[in-house]
Amino acid sequence: MDMKTVESKWQQRWEKTKENCFNKKNADKKFYVLEMFSYPSGAKLHIGHWYNYGPTDSYARFKKMQGYEVFQPMGFDAFGLPAENYAIKTKIHPKDSTEKNIATMEQQLKAMGAMFDWSAEVKTCEEDYYKWTQWMFLKLFENGLAYRKEAPVNWCPSCNTVLANEQVVDGCCERCGTPVIKKDLTQWFFKITQYAEELLQGLDKIDWPEKTKLMQRNWIGKSTGCEIEFECESGDKFKVFTTRCDTVFGVSYVVLAPEHPLVKKLASEEQREAVEKYVAETAKTNEIERLSSAREKTGVFIGHYAINPVNGEKVPIYAADYVLYSYGTGAVMGVPAHDERDFMFAKKYGLPVKKVIENKNGETVLPFCEDGICVNSLQFDGRFGEDARTEITNYLTKLGKGQRKVNYRLRDWLVSRQRYWGAPIPVIHCPHCGIVPVPYKDLPVRLPYNVEFEPDGKSPLAKCDEFMHTKCPHCGGDALRDPDTLDTFVCSSWYYLRYPDAHNTKMPFDPEIVNKMLPVDKYVGGAEHACMHLLYARFFTKALRDMGYLNFDEPFQSLVHQGVILGPDGNRMSKSKGNIVSPDEYVSTYGADVFRMYLMFGFSYTEGGPWSDDGIKSVAKFLDRVERFVLKVKDYKSAKDSVAAGANEKDLNYARNYAIRQITRDLESFSFNTAVARLMEYVNALYKYDGFAEKDNAFLKECTRDLLLLLAPFAPHFTEELWEQWGGKYSVFDHKYPVCDESALEREESEYAVQVNSKIKTKIMLAKGLSNDEIQAIVLADESIRPLIEGKVIRKFIVVPGRLVNIIL
RNA sequence: GCGGCUGUGGCGAAAUUGGCAGACGCGCCGGACUUAGAAUCCGGUGGGCAACCUUGCAGGUUCAAGUCCUGUCAGCCGCACCA
User: Fold this and answer.
1) How many CB atoms lie within 10 A of CB A349?
2) Closest Cα partner for A57 from A48, A70, A47, A39?
3) Model pLDDT, residue A360
4) What ipTM is given for this predicted complex?
5) H or E stretch covering A517
């Protein structure tokens, strides 16, 4: 079959007949299959795109054939740094390069033959999309979920922009690898922390990979403990957070983060110079160094003391950078006997180590950090672990010096970026009225084309006068626009809501439509988004729900991550390693169907693995084999030479229904490699039957027709063509996927493995429905078994129905 | 350091969830058809002459372990001074 011709023939036909368009009339049978949309960075699809989209499309086609009205849209996550960095290098405007890349990628995606509904396409860099991204921002602002604050933020000195916590990897910028530094800047944040608890709880209700859920749980980082108030000699008070309030009697010092305001306020005359020096040095150290747990602890005594509320002890106050200002209260109590960090710190600065917990099961070696029995803790002596914590918390609460407290590691999401290629933040800064949101009717705030975007640490838009100068919507006076753009993750936090109503000009989406179409039934994409996109999208969904726009809690009911296809050398494909494999030549040699089917057959979908094209020919061979067979059987004359259904027909029918059952199961679980294997087995069975002298041609044709239906999702162009030649009605995808006839799988006999003392000795065919005693009688009488057991006592006779028997002597 | 995942023939990989390890393929070997090759079709293929051995390694539970438990090694991923 000439795949080139066949592919374009059917792609055109599908487009002309709107075969892949979602039909809103059937919305009650909707099935929303979504692949993470592409970033148009390069002009070409790489193997990763194929691996994500090809097999998932087969799944979508399978669902369609099962009778669902499948909605499978595609679009482009088109704003972002790579286009801008590319522009800086080549002077090609990001808008131009992005649009060009999108045009090419659209062609390639269409050539792939996936059933994307292009009528719902979304491009985040277009006005009619980012207008609504800005709308989202305003809604969040209106609902108190977007706010501006000055804070130490992550700054990438190479990209010249701030980064979200999630975009800092090992203290470095996730894009360019440059070490991130801390800067105090006033930035926009989204209050994702308000949803920390629900984001955590919601994970229990969704069908996602456990690994991903665990990553989100860890990222949210809930910890339950106690806040304890310490009063200083000066009368100033501060709180510490601890999960181990059962150790509070062992406090020998307290530590404030260097950024803590009390550090400067309380520093004594003698210590002032040392403290200021230390604080300044901390500010200079970069994140990687500071956050390394291996690093030796440093700190400085600030020359002031605080009172331990449970025993009135006076303890010195230190400033030390192992305490993070951004977590908890930015202050901790130091209990050297029961915390490794505090222990190291105390040893270094000669602070007392006071044991207040003893090991229940043996010698107490300090630092002892597990739960134990309280000692030297007055009325709490003898209490253990959680009980001790509860009692001490209650005691502190009664004193008015503490309370139970839950903390999360999750931080608010920093969304402003000092870059050009993104959605402008729809806010106006008025010298009289302050921060004024752009009125909804004035959206979009257009991103101007002619901008000097060479990065110099200031927002490129700040240098564009025509953009910056505007009137205050409130007082009408001169005012300035916000020069920052939104993190591109904001754009991708709601795109799945836009698809079902992609052309709405009055709203981002019609809630009535979206509430019918969502949640996404199957979302497929890379695991690298676990704590970014997948978390942000959940936050957006919950926020929009609380504003009354949505009536569901989670955007993606079921999630699958495809594995990563590595270079042939086992490393991640990268230009620098020179191990990039392009799909193009394979596609032009073998065709799209063979290539995607090989991706399904040669790898375990969720595992991925190093690229190898060893088996690609085998898939081509398989399809040839199918083609030859189908065309041969097509011309068989039916009725006349029909014979009564005998054993061979029964076997073939078994093979057929076994294939149907297994392939259906395998597709449901994204186990594409075994599904293809079952198809191959079925074709082998068909060939075998065809080789018999006597055969029932009508039955064989029926079985062959089922083969085409089974194969269709895997090799869509190929099967559509054969289906037509077979005489099937267009389109093969409008026919029902075969359903397993369970009765065909019931057999009168099954083969049992016979073990003696757990070692397999022989195999026996046994009829169905025999009692254990009957089985025992037959097995013991078997010629190959009898000599092995003669004269011996059978201690046990185990029967696993339909599978094996084990004779224990 | 903490958490998670993975480890199976020469290769890609399966294994009904504790029940015949290696499905389906690649590769290789043999045969058929061919003047010959390609293509195709049929058969064989974990190791060992054998008894037997075999799922990274060492133990354990069980009639039975790739699967469960304990320890250990290697690789990958995530978090990393979160109090």
Assistant:
1) 18
2) A70
3) 81
4) 0.94
5) helix A511-517
